[in-house]
Amino acid sequence: MTEEQLPGGASAHLWEREEEIAAITEALDALGADHSTSGNLLVLRGEAGLGKTALLAETRRIAEGLGCTVWSTRGVETLRSVPFHVVRQLLQPALVSLLPEEAREYLGDWYDIAGPALGITDPGDRLADPQGVCDGLVAAVRRLAKRDWPLVLLIDDAHWADQETLAWLAAFVERLDDLSVLVLVARRPGEVNGDSARYLDAVAAAAGRPVRTISALTPDATAGLTRATLGEHADAPFCREVWAVTGGNPYETVELLAKVQDSEVEPVESRAGELRALNRSARGGGLVTRLEGLGVDATRFAWAAAILGTGISVGLVAQLASMAVDDAERCAELLRSARILTEPDPAGSRSHTGDLEFVHPLIATAVYNSIPPAMCTAMHGIAAQIVIDDGRGIAEASRHLLKVHPDDDEELVEQLRDAAKEHLAVGAPDAARRCLERALLEPPVPEVHARVLYELGCATLLTKPAVTIGHLQSALGMSGLAGPERVDAVFRLSQALLHNDQLEEAVRTVEAEAARHEEGPARLRLQAVQFMWEGIAGEAVSPRRSERLADLVATCTGRDNSERALLMLRGFDLLIQGESAEEVVELCDRALVNGRLAPGLGWTDTEWGIELLLMLANSYVYTDRLDRAESLYNEGLRAYESSGWSGGHLALAHAYVGLGHRRRGRLRDAETSLRESLRIAERVGRRLPLYWTATCNLVDTLLARGHVQQAWETAEQYGFAPPYPSTIVMPDPRSVRGRLLLAVGRTKEAVNELEAAEKAAAARGHFNPVVVPWALDLARALAGEDPARAAQLAGDARRQAERFGTDTAIGEALRCAAALETGQRQVRLASQAVAYLEASPCQYEHAAARVEYGIAARSVAELNRGLALARSCGADGLVAQAREVLDTGRGLR
Q1: In whole angstroms, what separates CA 89 from the centre of its chain?
Q2: Disulfide: which of 225, 704, 830, 844 matches 818 by Cβ 3.0-4.6 Å?
Q3: How many CA atoms lie less than 13 Å away from 887 in the CB half-sphere?
Q4: Mean pLDDT across the chain, nearest whole number?
């Protein structure tokens, strides 16, 4: 960029930035073309002082000249612990322009989910799902962006953004294809680690073009900038020394040249030796020395400004620095003159309401690091109270409380606990964890210590189960937790152990705690939890489990939620064993109150968890009570969506809604729900039970549709293969994989897989041929090479189906038996299968039976009926099979 284009130092950071500006201009031109233009993402990366902020300012200038709306924000090093701070600042211009009722209208269902994180509504007394809040923020920005097209989002110093904002940003930039918005992100390399680094890497990966790394100025550009600032008479050796001293860093170059002007140094070779000393005074220790030279009051003012970090008003700084407002005004002017503080640019990237800001983040960092440690700690303590008194709330004050020196302060412990509750209520568990970990350092008084550990365990339950285990075990080892609170702590500890793949220890934990209690509600709840975890394990981790559960349930009338839970658990236990479906349903019905879940047993209630309700709903789905099952599945889905629970709970809800569709025979709807479940499960993490549930059911549904190649590709893509999870997945994954292997012609592998399913089912006492359908597929696989064993397997499966007693189970067993026969016996068995499955609510199985019967009986009428059913189900494979027979017409009548 030429000297003439940049006649002064104001635009100095844009020297040699032609390529970056060209790319930005091209993106802005594309953005303004029409509403249908896809979104775009540009990432600028460069060390401190290379001009990232100047490029964002230039982007704003160009964008506004083109009629674009520009929202901007910046990460601040000292505010990284404040959740959602950066995204709040980004959206502030849009939010302040809306009345509360307008904001609710624009955000719709997401208002109550994202509103608390954005600070526009009270979160109330709730525990927000972090993924749900993130999704809510994505939806909120998307809706606001469509209102303000063409929109440009500028995010400076993203490396200093809070973790919650980075999670939102990573999710948002993945969904730009159908949103006409330009996102420009500037960051330094490095600077972060952990989840924040992962989110920034995801942002970079989402960019449609390589990340632009900004380079230092060349010697020629530095010379041009020097002459543009100091005059054409600056000689070549002097300019060369400017470049050597600053390394071509634009910020340092501008600051050094300002010092040259202030010191009236002639830009000639003979004075070039003074440049290094001048440069040292412009940064780091030299800057601190220069600040101290302005006097004690100015230094204290600068310290206070650095403590506040953002929203730097003279009034608040005066309070924090303990000085009169007049003195504070004088200090502010001194610091402005010294190029340490400046007035915010109304068109700049900051959207807070302060009077001042630091000229550059490097200066803010240097000033903050210069504060003596004891003074820094004391000032943070005062700042916390000032923030509270200013009406900004305990959550915002918590970043200062985290810095206060531990001093057995009971009030501080309570403040940190209150802040943690607010952080949890807006979906920021990591911020809550930091507050509670700091509270432990105070430390709390003995009677409060266990409660803080318990609250910390609750905050880290789903994000850090291994850490949670230690906190809750320590809490339970202290006095301070008693009654229902202690029982709840044990339950949550067992949940953490379960999530940490310590299933047996989870069972033993609740079992040991139950033994400490006398007969009563607490003991009963713990016993129910023990049976629940054992039921999920799918293995007899305790001897005589079913007998003990039956004995306990014999005394239950369903008078409270512990008894209702036991009734559900016994019903599920009988389901898995393949006992009478009528008895299963009778137990499940007794667990409801007027046909509905009792208060405290809802999908978002935390006393019991999702596992129990899935056991109840699955008991209904496999006993052919699909109306009841689907009602429960859909109720769970609505509850999680309306509450903003977008993590594992929502993934499971979609998976089981898909299972309901699959059982009903709505295969297209099943596939849609299961793909959505798998999308969410991918975000939560692979190899978890919920991931297996989504994948297993999707493979099963694709096989039912006749989409064998898609089923195989899905299995390959998502790792649907051994080793299998230790917890129950419905339907049984070994059986489904065996069926998949049969479908792709790998019969020997299929037989091995199905025989492994047989052994695993026998070891666990799982004999329901609908839930664990290995026998029917194994019989078909062995029909050619070992017909005697195939017939025995089919006969055993039929007897088990008759014991269970549902139309679906018996009809499916008869379908298998018919497949092993020929002639009139085959026709008779196929006809019986049709009769049972016609009475079943499972329309795909009915369609398959009709087609098979039509082929066996050579009946055009039955084939046409089967064809119509198959089409309504979306069973393309059955349609093709029936169509082929009808088209050939051989032997049909």
Answers
A1: 22
A2: 830
A3: 6
A4: 89
List, as one string, the DSSP characters of 703-720.
Answer: HHHT-HHHHHHHHHHTT-
Give Cα separations from 674 to 11, 224, 662 (angstroms): 54, 62, 10
Looking up tokens 């972090």 gives: 130
**Cβ contact 706:851 at 8 Å:** no
Three-state secondary structure string covering 105-153: HHHHHHHHHHHHHHCCCCCCCCCCCHHHHHHHHHHHHHHHHHHCCCEEE
Q: CA angle at residue 406 from 403 to 408, to 5 degrees?
A: 140
Cα 360 to chain center, whole Å?
Answer: 34
Name the strand (E) or helix (H) holding 70: strand 69-74
Long-range CB contact pairs, 397-402, < 8 A, 24+: 398/81, 398/423, 398/431, 398/435, 399/78, 399/79, 399/81, 399/82, 400/307, 401/435, 401/438, 402/81, 402/434, 402/435, 402/438
Nearest to 192 by CA among 169, 226, 224: 169
Residue in the block written with tokens 């989402």:
206
Q: Which amino acid is at 109?
A: D
- Cβ pair 569, 550 in contact under 8 A: no
Q: Which of the residue ranges 3-7, 273-277, 844-848 would you say has the lowest mean pLDDT?
A: 3-7
Say which residues have a Cβ less than 8 Å from residue 281's Cβ, sequence separation at least 6. Answer: 259, 287, 289, 290
The encoded tokens of residue 37 equal 């233009």
CA–CA distance, 811 with 798 (Å, rounded to integer) = 9
**Are residues 12 and 6 in contact, defined by beta-carbon separation less than 8 angstroms?**
yes
Residues 643, 605 contacting (CB under 8 angstroms)? no
Query: What pLDDT digit, counting tens, does each position of 194-248 carry?
Result: 889 999 999 999 887 778 899 999 999 999 999 999 999 999 999 999 999 999 9
Could you give the CA distance from residue 461 to residue 467 in angstroms, rounded to a whole number?
Answer: 8
The answer to whether 126 and 160 are in contact (CB under 8 A) is: no
**Dist CA 814 CA 821 (whole Å):** 11
Q: Structure tokens of 20?
A: 């970056």
Residues 6+ apart with CB under 8 A from 553: 566, 567, 569, 570, 587
CA distance 86 to 351: 10
Q: Is 45 helix (H, G, I), strand (E, B) or coil?
A: strand
Task: Transcribe 728-790 into DSSP letters.
Answer: --SS-HHHHHHHHHHHTT-HHHHHHHHHHHHHHHHHHT---TTTSTHHHHHHHHHTTT-HHHH
Cβ neighbours of residue 332 under 8 Å, at least 6 residues apart?
301, 314, 317, 341, 355, 356
Dist CA 127 CA 352 (whole Å): 28
C-alpha span between 835 and 856 (Å, rounded) = 15
Contact 653, 637 (CB under 8 A): yes
- Under the banding of pLDDT at 50, 70 and 90, the label for residue 501 is confident
| CA separation for the pair 506, 342 (Å, rounded) | 58
User: Under 8 Å CB-to-CB from 476, ≥6 apart: which residues?
Assistant: 450, 486, 489, 490, 493
What single DSSP character describes residue 464? -
- What is the DSSP secondary-structure string of 154-171? EEE-GGGS-HHHHHHHHH
Give strand pairing partners of 70.
Answer: 152
* pLDDT above 70 for 10: no
Place of tokens 């006398």: 518
Of residues 496 and 353, more confidently modeled:
496
Q: Which of 748, 736, 831 is nearest to 784 (CA)?
A: 748
What are the start-end ranges of the H helices in 371-477?
373-389, 394-401, 410-425, 429-441, 446-459, 465-476
Beta bridge partner(s), residue 617: none
431-490 pLDDT tens trace = 999 999 999 999 999 989 999 999 998 887 766 778 889 999 999 999 888 888 899 999
Place of tokens 């026969």: 821
Longest dimension (CA), the chain: 113
Rounded to whole angstroms, the Cα distance separating 172 from 285 reads 40
Q: What global pTM score does this model have?
A: 0.79
Per-residue pLDDT at 278 = 85
- Name 470's Cβ contacts closer than 8 Å, sequence gap at least 6: none
